[in-house]
Write a structure and sequence with these properties.
heterodimer, A: 104 residues, mainly beta, Rieske Iron-sulfur Protein, four-stranded antiparallel sheet, 10 strands, 0% helix, globular, B: 407 residues, alpha/beta, FAD/NAD(P)-binding domain, Enolase-like, domain 1, five-stranded parallel sheet, 11 helices, 26 strands, 24% helix, binds flavin-adenine dinucleotide, binds FE2/S2 (inorganic) cluster, 2Fe-2S (chain A), Rieske_2Fe-2S_sf (chain A), 2 iron, 2 sulfur cluster binding (chain A), MocE_2FeS (chain A), metal-binding (chain A)
């Protein structure tokens, strides 16, 4: 259960099939908009080396790390194989009144 | 029960071993490496891990090999392949039978003729090499680096971070002349100069002498460079001796077909030790020394050892980190007729290389952090799709490369 909803940005600030970086109280997250127009959130740093995933490429439901192309399913956080083997943590997201919120 | 044996416990061998299990192979898997460590990543050896003095960054922890029932033999060298007997022989005389064999023996640093690595002359390939070099990278020490390729330049950047003085000697007129456009090499060279690295291009070594407490290089120009340590970074040679002695075909690496099969149907080869034909570039035979290639070929070799028939078709891809800059290259740029520059912001840019027919064959980018990564990745997909993009569109920062891919 998420305790607090934190405002991220306006829904249209993220392109379809894209990602942005969101920093909040000393932590960093990646917020995604899928090709089906759903929104998702994961930890912001790759589990291989601590690299910001928001510089990576979103293809369908996969975020690919910009550093060595490690892939994760951003809806489930699942690591999709070498070089990443540790899953990403995911967070609930909601869109209300055109604004995206992350549940922390 | 089938016995699959992998010789060479580096990136490639380790990925192949895990891929065999992931693809459902139920027989025995033995992964043999001559180094004392479990398979580890080499790229960090010249980068942050060198600066931090970190231990080896393992490809996988010991427990994962146990879970996947992969028998890892470290510190064991294979000295012979007995093809007639379908077995390999170890340096201690022991033998191990195989049904399928994968050679993932990698490459080793080329030595400067007339010298040996040891004492005050080092090369950088293994964790133990890195530890030995690091011991010399202290404030006030002077290191000489021979070779302005990726490893030499990354090492120079790391050495500066640790406060050592660096002189880098390159025989050719510029650094990074293999596979990197001059425009990008120039930016790299400028940055090193700004960080205090002395780069001597077009400098040939006439002699090397080890004296008590220092090593002295005499250049053909007459200049003498004395340093606490000389690191030789003049390229790598593939470890093909086993294959050659067994009568397998070797041409600049163990020669394999698109499916990574050697001239013996029970023996495959993959990674830095291998040369293979690249369909994207007219079946030209190449040998890559690239981390992602080692992974991809390891995984593909595993699939094909299990009867798969897929050919390797990935676009070559490489990255390098120096200071806060990352350079990424997708494809092979030699043979380019036109080059188009695209600004990415923050001083970063990408060069797109097109052949005479207008086909996109490579893209090279440099910039701070990972700002070029996304466009290089898209360029890679465009290269794989063999597109003939409009150069003006490529150059325009407002063109979304993703759109070109969909077109
Ligand atoms: C310092 C450094 C920095 C690098 N940085 C980058 C980078 O930034 N980007 C990039 O793309 N690539 C980089 N690379 C290249 C990348 O690390 C290699 O392409 C990759 O390691 C190749 O993997 P491999 O498994 O084919 O070979 P290797 O990693 O060389 O592994 C082969 C292993 O086989 C063992 N072996 C050989 N013969 C035998 C035998 N007869 N019996 C038993 N064992 C044997 C060797 O000891 C070795 O451990 C770098 C390499 C180095 C050295
Ligand atoms: S840092 Fe993400 S794959 Fe290596």
């Amino acid at each position: 259960m998420s305790d607090t909803w934190v405002e991220v940005c306006a829904a249209d600030e993220i392109d379809e099939e894209d990602v942005i970086r969101f920093d909040h109280s000393g932590r960093t997250f990646a917020i995604y908009r899928s090709p089906e127009d759903t929104y998702h959130a994961t930890d912001g740093l790759c589990t291989h080396e601590k690299i910001h995933l928001a510089d990576g490429l979103v293809m369908d439901h996969v975020i690919e790390c910009p550093k060595h192309n490690g892939r994760f399913n951003y809806k489930t956080g699942e690591a999709k194989g070498a070089p990443v083997c540790v899953d990403l943590r995911t967070y609930p997201v909601k869109v209300e009144g055109g604004t995206v919120f992350i549940g922390l | 029960m089938a016995n699959f044996v992998i010789v060479g416990a580096g990136e490639c061998g380790a990925r192949a071993a895990f891929a065999l299990r992931e693809k459902g192979f139920d027989g025995a898997i033995t992964l043999i490496g001559s180094e004392a460590h479990l398979p580890y990543e080499r790229p960090p050896l010249s980068k942050d891990a060198l600066v931090a003095g970190a231990g080896p960054k393992l490809v996988a922890e010991a427990t994962r090999y146990a879970e996947a029932r992969i028998d890892v033999l470290t510190g064991r060298a294979v000295v012979e392949i007995d093809r007639a007997g379908n077995r390999i022989l170890f340096d201690d005389g022991a033998a191990l039978p195989y049904d399928k064999l994968l050679l993932a023996t990698g490459a080793r640093p080329r030595a400067l003729p007339g010298t040996r690595h040891g004492g005050r002359i080092a090369a950088l390939r293994s964790h133990d090499d890195a530890a030995r070099i690091r011991a010399h990278l202290v404030e006030g020490s002077h290191i000489a680096i021979l070779g302005g390729g990726f490893i030499g330049l990354e090492l120079a950047a790391s050495a500066r971070k640790l406060g050592a003085t660096v002189t880098l000697i390159e025989g050719l007129p510029r650094v990074l002349s293999r596979g990197v456009p001059a425009e990008i090499a120039e930016i790299v060279a400028h940055r090193h100069a700004a960080e205090g690295v002395e780069i001597l291009c077009g400098a040939k070594v006439a002699g090397v002498e080890e004296l008590p407490g220092e090593v002295c290089l005499t250049l053909e120009s007459g200049r003498i460079v004395s340093a606490n340590l000389l690191v030789v970074g003049i390229g790598a040679v593939p470890n093909t001796e086993l294959a050659e002695a067994a009568g397998l075909v070797v041409e600049n690496g163990i020669s394999v077909d698109g499916r990574l099969r050697t001239s013996d149907p029970d023996i495959f080869a993959a990674g830095d030790c291998t040369s293979y034909p690249l369909p994207l570039y007219g079946e030209r035979r190449i040998r890559l020394e690239s981390w992602r290639n080692a992974q991809e070929q390891g995984q593909l070799a595993a699939a094909n050892m299990l009867g798969g028939t897929q050919a390797h078709s990935a676009v070559p891809w490489f990255w390098s980190d120096q200071y806060d800059m990352t350079l990424q290259i997708a494809g092979l740029a030699d043979g380019a007729a036109t080059t188009v520059r695209r600004e990415v912001g923050e001083g970063a840019f990408i060069l797109f290389h097109l052949d005479a027919g207008g086909r996109l064959i490579a893209a090279s980018g440099i910039g701070p952090g990972n700002v070029v990564a996304r466009d290089i990745r898209l360029a890679e997909m465009l290269i794989a799709a063999r597109v003939h993009p409009d150069p003006a569109e490529l150059a325009a920062p407002e063109t979304k490369l993703k759109k070109l891919l969909a077109a």
